[in-house]
Design goal:
Rhopdopsin 7-helix transmembrane proteins; globular
Amino acid sequence: MSAVNDTNFNSAVFLLSGIPGWEDVYLWISIPFCLMYVISMVGNSVILFIIKTDPSLHEPMYIFLSMLAITDLALLIATMPTILGIYLFNSREISFDACLAQLFFIHSLSFIESSVLLLMAFDRFVAIRDPLRYASILTPPRIAKIGLVFMLRSVVQIFPLPFLLKRFQYCQANVLSHSYCLHQEVMKMACSDITVNSIYGLFTIVFTVGLDSVFIFLSYVMILKTVLSIASRAERLRALNTCVSHLCAVLVFYTSLISLAVIHRFGNSSSHLLQIFVGYVYMLFPPLINPIVYSVKSKHLRARIIRAFIK
């Protein structure tokens, strides 16, 4: 079925892209993708299981980590059908409604992950700045309320996007650059004025990811200021060491997200392979790296995981 010259948005079909020119080895390419999905799913699931079943890990830091793991799992589930569908079954077509649903979940979950990383930065700041009141400030009910507010902020901002896209007619060859749907790509397929979508998409990025990254930076400025006021060098290193895992998660997530956003908005002349590579890094690396980094750097979590598998 062709996905071209369809002016009825209800019957529009988009073609997702794998790696152009590598179609003959898609089955082999599917092996590392399957491995990444399996490792990411198992890693995040193990972290959730250990935190849930071990009362000693019911602390603010690990509650935030479980929120990050849930978000990563949801992102994997949102992208797995289309990415693996291309490389395992050469299934490139996706209906318009399915594409809208996928981009809604991808963008909402990406914004939620940004919010969780901000909350984790605040958690590290409170733990280092005021350790004696840490548990009383970040109580489970308060964490739940803050998490709900940030989740609603993300969902409410993304909610208009599918409706803004539905009002367009699509009369171009609807071939997307990635193996999943993104708002910035779908809107470019429309043969209508996309100014409103472009402005609103930029607004959501700045208001969410932009503000979150600024507040994370300010949190670490305050953390560094607090750490430098500690007299003991050993205590300073110990305090900074508790931030390493979070810094790795922040760098992996924001570097890939910002790179992808810049490429789509300003990199029209950039290599198509570069766009594809950055797209996969953005979607697959954070869920893969986060559980590994936290399991390695968190002594308590690592000990609980080893104990669970030894049993």
